Amino acid sequence: MQINGPSRQAVRWNLICRVSMLAAYLSMTPLAGAETGSCSNPNLTVSVPSSELRQEVCTAAELALEFLAGLGIQAKYPVRIVVVEQPLHNLTYSAYGCYDSRSDLVTVMSQQIIHKTSPSPKMFYQPIDQTQYRGIIAHEVAHALIQQNSKVLPLPLGTAAQEYLATVTQLSIMPPAIRDYVIGTADVGPWESGDIITGDYMAMAPARFAVKSYLHFRQLPDPAKFVDKLLRSKWYYVNVD
């Protein structure tokens, strides 16, 4: 199903993210001793309170850059990442991180504050540990690179296209055993010809959306062709050929 214009819901997602990020900036509690610096990859700049956390954030972000580079999605300028010690409110799809296209900034809650503000935080049916935290970072970094490589600017890229690529990145950097567990627990198949990938499905069942997208991506005969289609998508939906 095609929509004859930019998706109002895709635009709404961008606005929600921007409003929530603005509120976060106005009330943000800075990380004590936070310093901004580069990772070993010069296309990443991070603001974190410790060298240990910096390494963790850099590792996750570098895994995302490496995966996306294999699809022809290259960093055209450095991705900026800041780790905050407070909840990010009113986000539509991600409770723990956000990419704001207006400020061109990735903001992620620290793992400590995630566990402090949620009684039993989970991602993909599992407690949020180092692996899942890396996935959260990689997901948001993917959004930043997708924005850099969008072929519909200044219009927003469609929500389904963004989330497809971001969740595929998130699952692709997981250790195989953990990814296999997530796939088995989701108990869904890939998107099939004639299906319509939607942001609504992502909102209702994020883990299943991610698994369906990953399984679909893995069986593509020409991934680069589909990625190019996604980077040209202005709609809230993506039709599966």
Describe this structure in words.
With 241 residues, the protein is of the alpha/beta class. It is built from 9 helices and 9 strands. Helix content is 49%, strand content 14%. The strands form 3 sheets. The protein has a 5-stranded mixed β-sheet. A two-stranded antiparallel ribbon has the order 6-7. Strand 6 and strand 7 form a beta hairpin. The longest helix has 20 residues. The chain starts with 7 loop residues before the first helix and ends with a strand.
Strand order of the largest sheet: 1-2-3-5-4
Structural class: alpha/beta
Work out the helix count. Answer: 9
Tell me the total number of β-strands.
9
Give the low-confidence spans: 1-30
Shape: globular
Q: Write down the secondary-structure element order.
A: HEEHEEEHEEHHHEHHHE
Characterize the largest beta sheet: strand count, sense, and whether it forms a barrel: 5 strands, mixed
In helices, the fraction of residues equals 40-55%
Radius of gyration: 17 Å
Per DSSP, what share of the residues sits in E-state strands of 2 or more residues?
5-15%
Intertermini distance: 11 Å
On the 0-100 scale, what is the average pLDDT? 85
SSE blueprint:
Layout lengths: L7 H20 L7 E4 L5 E5 L2 H19 L9 E6 L12 E4 L4 E5 L1 H7 L4 E2 L2 E2 L2 H20 L9 H14 L3 H11 L9 E3 H6 L1 H13 L4 H9 L5 E3 L2
Parallel strand pairs: 2-3, 3-5
Antiparallel strand pairs: 1-2, 4-5, 6-7, 8-9
Describe what is shown at a glance.
The protein has 241 residues and is α/β, with parallel strands linked by helices.
